[in-house]
Specification:
The protein is mainly alpha-helical. It has one domain. A two-stranded antiparallel sheet has the order 1-2. A hairpin with a 7-residue loop joins β1 and β2. α3 runs parallel beside α6, α3 packs across α9 and α9 packs across α10. It starts with a strand and ends in a 14-residue tail after the last helix.
Length: about 425
């Protein structure tokens, strides 16, 4: 038997330990060795690499779209349209890392994260650098509206997609900040996560049992229902009348966050279930990383086509197109992220690809890459009077270097110092109780 450790009443905390062989039945070590389960706490360098991939894919997409490459005839420029898959990757990463402590609370009986501390960490993680970008925008490209309090309020509160009839041309927000619509969605998800986690936990505990597998399966069912809500919500964008602004709000993207939430449940389940059948599945998926990434590349190509939406910064203009956009983007994110999330610590191939020093550095500054890119990209093309008349081959290296430089300064001068301040008085906690990112 695994050793129980003390915790909440009626719940066993399992510490995996090798079982003695049954009397008279000695198996070879190769047959008795159990696959190592994935880590569920602490820093995971390979996930930093996934962040880097997502941030750079969005950067390349924005350079290509602003240069006009996506819509040029007789070229393969449309392939850059697939860079939008970085958004579902980011959403799935958030689902994995931020929901995981709540999954552990349900499956392992640990105390759930304190909501106040959780929200405080989110604010200090995202807002200082975000506010720096907004201020920089308002004193440069947005200076004509620097005296407009509504503009300041909508941008500083990360709510620009909720304000109708503003001066910007697109529902995404000002052109120099167009990528930040997805941060508006993320912030809404951050705020709603404690409630969502409470509902899922209530459903999982309704069947009174100490069986980790039963609770995990019920959590996965609940997450499946949560994901499915994206599709009737998407229908509301088109029926009974067209409401494209709804396409920028959180419910449409439940399915992408749910991918990471499901992976969070599976990783915790693999650590806690003494029978470990799910750990075998985790190892099989992680060992199939190459096949998963080939599938992700194929899905990327599909995501780049007009089948999943127009080759412009517009919301898909039909129900089935919008639905396919969600499905293909989600599957691509799952194929990229799942083998990494489910891999044991120290996986050699994944570590070499994603946890090397370059990818580690790009992952650490990825938030800044995301924040600063369009301010730099649009500013460059406007300053050179080449909007939609650029050349990706020459512009991409320059704009990538400039964005990385801005993101590096943002990380070392603002993001990291703020994070250090917030960690000084952080209480010590059991592994996986608090989000690691």
């Amino acid at each position: 038997m695994d050793r129980p450790r003390p915790g909440a009443a009626g719940v066993r905390h399992l510490e995996p330990r090798a079982r003695p062989q049954e009397e008279g039945h000695v198996r070879p070590a190769a047959q008795t060795a159990r696959p190592a389960p994935p880590p569920i706490s602490g820093h995971q360098p390979t996930l930093e690499g996934v962040r880097a991939v997502a941030a750079l894919s969005i950067l390349v997409y924005h350079v290509a779209s602003t240069a006009g490459t996506l819509t040029k005839e007789d070229t393969m420029g449309w392939l850059f349209n697939g860079g939008q898959v970085g958004v579902p990757v980011f959403f799935a990463l958030s689902g994995l890392l931020l929901y995981r402590p709540w999954a552990a609370a349900v499956l392992d009986g640990r105390a759930a994260p304190r909501i106040g501390l959780y929200l405080r960490k989110r604010v200090f993680r995202i807002m200082p650098a975000y506010w720096a970008v907004i201020i920089c925008f308002m004193v440069t490209a947005g200076r004509d509206h620097i005296g407009d309090p509504v503009t300041w309020v909508s941008l500083l509160t990360v709510a620009q997609t909720y304000f109708p009839d503003m001066w910007w041309e697109s529902g995404l927000g000002p052109a120099h900040l167009g990528q930040l619509w997805s941060l508006v969605v993320e912030v809404a998800w951050y705020v709603s996560l404690p409630f969502t986690a409470a509902v899922l936990g209530w459903y999982a505990r309704r069947k009174r049992t100490n069986d980790v597998g039963v609770r995990a399966k019920r959590l996965l069912v609940g997450i499946g229902v949560y994901a499915a809500l994206s599709f009737p919500y998407t229908a509301l964008m088109f029926f009974p009348e067209r409401n494209p602004e709804l396409g920028l709000w959180l419910p449409r993207f439940f399915v992408w966050f749910a991918i990471g939430m499901a992976l969070a449940v599976v990783t915790v389940w693999a650590r806690l279930d003494e029978r470990r059948p799910v750990a075998v599945v985790c190892r099989a998926v992680s060992d199939s990383w190459a096949a998963c990434w080939v599938a992700a590349a194929m899905l990327y190509v599909v995501a780049a086509t007009p089948a999943t939406g127009p080759l412009t910064l517009l919301i898909p203009n039909g129900f089935w197109t919008s639905t396919l956009h969600l499905v293909v983007g989600g599957l691509c994110a799952a194929a990229l992220l799942a083998p990494v999330a489910l891999a044991p610590a120290g996986h050699p191939a994944l570590g070499a690809a994603l946890a090397n020093p370059v990818m580690g550095f790009l992952g650490r500054i990825s938030y800044g890459v995301f924040l600063w890119q369009l301010l730099i990209i649009v500013g460059w093309y406007e300053a050179t009077d080449r909007v939609f008349r650029g050349d990706v081959a020459t512009d991409l290296p320059l704009l990538t270097a400039a964005t990385i430089a801005a993101a590096t300064a943002s990380y070392y001068l603002l993001e990291r110092p703020v994070q250090r301040l917030t960690r000084r008085d952080r209480p010590r906690r059991a592994p996986a109780r608090e989000p690691s990112s």
